[in-house]
Design goal:
mainly alpha, 21 helices, 2 domains, 2 strands
Length: 487
């Protein structure tokens, strides 16, 4: 019977979902600081090595919606386990590859890990009692920010000096194996059955790849280049076509009605804002603290290792604490208020970095404030989505939200890199970003964060039931159990 099985192993469910969320954040962020070392050790040029990050991003956009839907149709556990197995295989390949081409293939396989977060949220919703659901979702979601911070620190520690970059991927091997072992112990529930919209999945994948590829490569190709313009135009045409295709499909990959539902739409826009702000914060701060102060008059001349431990680690550590606390706050005042508050605090943190960067303490403090805000935002969004969708849509709703966060992060990274490269001062033969370039980057992140919070406050109606909706979730779960038993 499903109820005894849920009660029998509750302690393993949350660690498995949290570990999976941590893993995908680790995989996304850990190679970024060591791309120059990868290029040097594999003899690849800067353009080619950039695909180590881009390949994962494109794979994530392709696989996440499909795997989220498969979790509903086939059952979440088997899809969760299969995704972890592919992620583990990709991690092993990345750790043993001695050619840039094989490393890029490995990163494509690792890109499937992005589906672990929405699948994990689906597991929580199906298996946990309502009283534990909100807090547990907040913990799992907050590990996204923690994993990203830990990834940057681990990269600095594992690759200091001339160390083999492959050490970072052995870390993902270990983490993948641990998470897979946890996942195998989880209870299995039958899927709801039904068809999978593979045509819709293919069209959506093509549209997202056409959108994300020029965003991630625009700085290299040139924003006005033919490739960028053609791909943006193709993305627009394909995604509009996807919208009309899904309206005509009996069992669509993504419900158009769900996407148009105002709370879902606004939460997805807020996810873009949070993703944008997070990458703007981490990227700009990493470059800023490494700026040679003797030549630029600002920055702290930090090494990659010092950047990771002194400047980035405090934000990751604070996120570990703030995530569960944010979950408790969601249970008290509702996810709408927590998300809006997070965006406001994040905007203040980013804005303060425009002038509070003359010494290490104030820079670290402002970074910690912004990092805590990101953790709060991550903790609140799944609860906001769950309070407005049916159980059958939990996986795909969180999948779309994850993609929107990824799109926002990609745009944030691209804009910050463009700003830092566009405003430089020459020191000898080296072009270094100006202090004003960093100010612009921080202000831009603050504005986007603030806009996200304003959208949440203005366009998501206050709903007392959204504080918990225990009765509703319980009723829905009972219905889901009956449907699963019939499948």
């Amino acid at each position: 019977m499903t109820t005894p099985e849920r009660v029998a192993r509750p302690r393993l469910l949350l660690p498995a979902a949290a570990a999976a969320s941590f893993l995908l954040a680790l995989i996304q962020s850990i190679p970024v600081p060591v791309l120059p070392q990868i290029a040097s050790q594999l003899g690849a040029d800067a353009t080619t090595v950039g695909w180590v990050s881009t390949a994962t991003l494109l794979a994530a956009s392709s696989f996440t919606p499909l795997l989220g839907r498969l979790g509903h149709v086939l059952g979440v556990k088997p899809v969760f386990v299969a995704t972890l197995a592919v992620t583990l295989a990709g991690s092993v390949l990345a750790a043993t590859a001695h050619d840039i081409s094989w490393l890029i293939v490995a990163r494509v396989l690792q890109g499937t890990s992005f589906a672990l977060f929405p699948l994990g949220i689906s597991l929580l919703r199906h298996e946990l009692p309502p009283a534990k659901l909100t807090h547990s979702m907040a913990i799992v979601a907050s590990t996204l920010g923690v994993g990203g911070g830990v990834a940057l620190v681990a990269a600095g520690l594992l690759t200091q000096g001339d160390a083999d970059y492959r050490r970072i991927f052995w870390l993902t091997v270990v983490m993948s194996a641990i998470t897979l072992a946890l996942a195998l112990t989880l209870p299995k529930r039958p899927g709801a059955g039904g068809r999978v919209d593979y045509v819709g999945a293919t069209v959506l994948s093509a549209g997202l790849v056409s959108l994300l590829l020029p965003i991630s490569q625009g700085h290299t190709w040139g924003w006005g280049s033919a490739k960028v313009i053609v791909l943006f135009a193709a993305a627009l045409i394909i995604l509009v076509g996807f919208y009309f295709l899904e309206r005509r499909t009996a069992a669509p990959l993504v419900s158009v009605e769900m996407l148009r539902h105002r709370p879902i739409l606004v939460t997805n826009l807020a996810a873009m804002a949070v993703g944008f702000a997070m990458f703007a914060l981490q990227l700009a701060t990493s470059y800023f603290v490494q700026s040679p102060s003797a030549y630029t008059g600002f920055g702290f001349s930090a090494t990659v290792l010092q950047t990771s431990i002194i400047y980035l680690l405090p934000g990751a550590a604070a996120s570990v604490v703030i995530g569960p606390l944010a979950g408790m706050l969601v249970g008290k005042v509702g996810p709408r208020i927590v998300l809006a508050l997070a965006c406001g605090i994040g905007a203040v943190g980013l804005a303060s970095l425009t002038f509070l960067h003359d010494n290490k303490v104030e820079t670290i403090a402002a970074f910690v404030v912004a990092s805590c805000a990101i953790a709060m935002a991550y903790a609140s969004m799944p609860a906001l989505l769950v309070s407005h969708v049916q159980p059958a849509e939990t996986g795909i709703a969180n999948s779309v939200n994850s993609i929107m966060r990824t799109v926002g992060g990609t745009i944030g990274s691209a804009l910050v890199i463009t700003i830092l490269a566009g405003q430089t001062t020459t020191v000898g033969t080296v072009a270094l970003p100006t202090e004003n370039a960093f100010r612009i980057s921080y202000v831009l992140g603050a504005i986007v964060f603030a806009v996200g919070g304003a959208l949440v406050l203005l366009f998501i109606d206050p709903d007392r039931r959204a504080k918990h909706r225990a009765g509703e979730v319980s009723d829905i779960r009972a219905t889901a159990d009956l449907e699963g038993a019939r499948a």
